[in-house]
Automatic annotation (TrEMBL):
The keyword Nucleotide-binding applies. This is RAB32a, member RAS oncogene family. One of its GO terms (molecular function) is GTP binding. GO terms for biological process: endosome to lysosome transport; phagosome-lysosome fusion. The chain holds residues 16 to 199 of 228 of the full protein. Belongs to the small GTPase superfamily. Rab family. It comes from Poecilia formosa. Keywords: GTP-binding, Nucleotide-binding. One of its GO terms (cellular component) is lysosome. The keyword GTP-binding applies.
């Protein structure tokens, strides 16, 4: 009668971080993975990667491969072939005081919709962030827009965040992982 070897499950998930130029895509990754923030802006060129390892619970190890993509969602067009997959998990970041950062063309919406569908037609988990809360006292307009965006996508979760002040960074990531694990 032997004790059973405790089974540890390991997962690797790809998460795209997308959104308009300068909204904070690189910053959320830096904050989340390296606990750092810099006010210095250096635009990402192409794609960067970072790996976050999470001891989710005593039996579950999760590796998040974070894809930090430069600029707008539109530029994902050619990248789509590289990714060649559906079921993409995403964090979409907009900037709370810049309405335009939530505007997507029909083409972009179509691409995002297509790529975030699972094989069975269900929606892969997403999280939407409305960032730079610290820049804005009144958040009412930003949250209305964000609500609207979530409504279009049927998103379950959005957050108003500040990567500078470390508000809702871990929470957003935790929500995403919870949903990925629940869908898997
Ligand atoms: P691209 O790579 O060009 O697409 O930009 P990005 O989305 O990666 O933006 P990045 O993370 O480089 O941030 C752009 C600027 O916004 C930098 O100067 C950051 O310091 C600043 N920034 C990011 N998050 C916040 C925030 O929550 N509050 C404030 N005040 N500034 C922020
Ligand atoms: Mg960047």
């Amino acid at each position: 009668a032997g004790g059973s070897v405790s089974e540890c499950k390991e997962y690797l998930f790809k998460v795209l971080v997308i959104g308009e130029l300068g909204v904070g895509k690189t910053s959320i990754i830096k904050r989340y993975v390296h606990q750092l923030f810099s006010q210095h802006y250096r635009a990402t060129i192409g794609v960067d990667f970072a790996l976050k390892v999470i001891n989710w619970d005593s039996k579950t190890l999760v590796r998040l491969q974070l894809w930090d993509i430069a600029g707008k969602a539109a530029r994902l067009g050619p990248l789509a072939n590289l990714l060649h997959s559906s079921s993409l998990r995403m964090m979409f970041t907009g900037q709370i005081n810049q309405r335009g950062t939530f505007d997507l063309s029909n083409r972009e919406l179509h691409w995002l919709d297509l790529k975030s569908k699972n094989a069975n037609g269900s929606q892969a988990p997403w999280v939407l962030l409305s960032n730079k809360l610290d820049l804005k006292r009144s958040t009412s307009r930003g949250s209305t827009l964000t609500h609207y965006f979530c409504y279009i996508f049927g998103l379950k979760r959005w957050c108003i965040s500040s990567f500078q002040d470390n508000i809702n960074v871990d929470e957003a990531a935790r929500f995403l992982v919870e949903n990925i694990l629940a869908n898997d």
